[in-house]
Amino acid sequence: MARIIDGRAVAATVQEEVRERVFRLSARGIRPGLALVRVGDDPASVSYVRQKERAAQGLGLRSEVFVLPEGTTERELLSLIHDLNRDPGVHGVLVQLPLPSPLSPERVMEVVDPRKDVDCLHPENLGRLVQGDPYLLPCTPRAVQEVLVRSGYPPAGKHVVVVGRSVLVGRPLSILLSQKGLGGDATVTLCHSATPDLGRFTRDADIVVVAVGRPGTLRADMVREGAVVIDVGVTRIPTPGGFRLVGDADFEALKEKAEAITPVPGGVGPVTVAALLLNTVLACEHQTQGR
Ligand code: GUN
Fold it and tell me: Whose CA is nearest to atom 2 of ligand 1?
């Protein structure tokens, strides 16, 4: 029977660091500010943005949500981002993804002031990350690292198989895990939708991270006895009363075989939110240095 990793407990330790930093900033008369931008009414995005706003307020940050209607033009969205870039009370700007088409996430991300880019999606910040000198760490990849290290499964020397190559999770995570230092030093294999026979790779892994967004992606026959499974996927499955959330891994079967596994919900998700708040506070410290 696997150990079920408690993401909320990991998030609480990250939040503690945020709280201390917020306290030190407040002694200097500074309150970190986070602007959350949502375009359209995708139900998952509505829920995520609300969670981020609540978590920010719970730790004493200033947070404001900007909701733009579906059908907003690129010009209108970029104009809002320019305003937020200029606002000295806003230290972090997050544009919730996915954006409704035809809005281009790449175009939007390159307009966010890199110093306020708490998602680490600006090309400059992605470049720094690849160079090994990151400004901030992307939230979900950082959350995966925190979960591994703080649960006693540091990836150093392990074979980690990452499934999914998204710019939000799989791609940057594969880079972070392979870098030198705590949370890194792993041997990394990056698998994706064009990988034939995924199980051939995941069965060799000490740690499997699934971040695809498709339930059933990782089955019990695809991991070896004693593997650690980190499930980043979140899919809403309709039920008579509403919906329930399921991950990418077959949790019920894997918990009989793995050494440890993160649940959905209550695994990586809460840590991602805590990582966002930490980034906002770090961005605030950076922007207010010497003031
Ligand atoms: N949508 C799902 N995860 C994220 C995230 O980490 N950042 C943004 N901006 N959008 C997301």
Answer: 97
